[in-house]
Amino acid sequence: MTRNKLNIWLFIAFGLMVVWALGGIVLLDRNAVPATSEAKTPDSIKVLIRTGTEAAALRQLLEPFERSTGIHADLIEVGRDGYFTTVGTQLLAGSDTFDLVFVPNTSVAELASAGAIAPLDPFIDNPALTDRKAFDLPDFLAVYRYNGTIYALPTDISTHFLYYRSDLIPNPPETWDEVYELAEKFSQSRDPASPTKWGLAMPAVVPEERTKIFASLLWTFGGDFISDSDGHALLGKPESLQAAQFMQKLLRNKLIPGDLLYWDFAKTRDALLSGDVAMAAPFWNAAYPAILSDKESRYAGNIKIALLPGMKDEQGHIRRAPFQHGWTFAVNASSKHPEWAWKFLSYATGKQGGALYVKAGGVPARRSILSDPAYAASRPDFRLILKSMEVAREEPSVTYYPSMVEITEKALAKIYTLESSPEEAFREASNDLNRLTAANP
């Protein structure tokens, strides 16, 4: 074969290989297109939530929600210690790594003012997304607004109760004066033969626990943190000082633990169960189911709950003002799937989701569920929550809430350690609060 003929055959062979290769690519491509177009990607959202009882309860809603809507929801759990930092950093940076976020109602104003969470009214008012009659917005015990617009709805509601040993105290005290008398009777500092070490206990740790617990006392005595009208500090009011003086009186007479600043939810609950305290107040409603189910404590069956005590006015009426707050869901303003996020939010806070949430140990923020006779025996705390919520108050919904709490907790630390008088501690706090509110009109 001549060199020219060999070159011709090589050229033809090369050309055929190119045609075959290109044909193969086309065929592969044609086979790939239908596979891609036919693949069904499930609708999916990410839900950012803190680790704990709420996450465990909400996890029970995921499967029934997906069966009902076809939307898959993944929970992204973050530890409790770093949760607020993570939420603030991610939302304010405009992260779209999650669609729905679990936040306390006190964070709503700050996040809404920054445009980090989406208004919910457009979802609620859209008949294609929400059946308003079935959703029954008036059934909520609380909804959370900023500048008149709803930004968050609660999955949980919390308030403060009085816990007491019914074997020692047959009738719960109605006023804080009665609480003090009983605390004297059941404190070993006053009576070494007392069956309990202290007459009274309550959580007082930070962050926020101290301010929230003290709020019930502050409001019941007639005091307040700041004015609703102009944000002016009210901790210097005589009524506010009386609440702090009452706390110092309990501490000086050793009717409550001297190391109260280290008492958290678990330590307070355990002190009731171990028989160390006769009463706990103000204390969270969430402790009661755990106390009821405790099989080891010899005192659990004697621990009862009652409305938080109040102050008797000149007409003999008892004024009560227990604290309340809600853990809520809000839609991330940067979510790529806001309508799907709303579907999960409305399911989790709705009547169907709320009923499932009860089975998982939660406390839904819906009147219809808390008043349902079906729960009268298994959840006796529900009716007391409803009664408490009739007079309960929530903390100020302000954009500078974290700074307000930091100032207040610093003052309370000085009061609880007897380092400063209420007048001195609250005078300094009032000055700081007034500077804060002036800078955040």
Automatic annotation (TrEMBL):
TM stretches of this protein: 7-28
Keyword S-adenosyl-L-methionine set for record: no
Entry-linked InterPro entries: Bact_solute-bd_prot1 (IPR050490), SBP (IPR006059)
UniProt keyword annotations, A-Z: Membrane, Transmembrane, Transmembrane helix
UniProt name for this protein: Sugar ABC transporter substrate-binding protein
Pfam families: SBP_bac_8
Entry-linked Gene3D superfamilies: Periplasmic binding protein-like II (3.40.190.10)
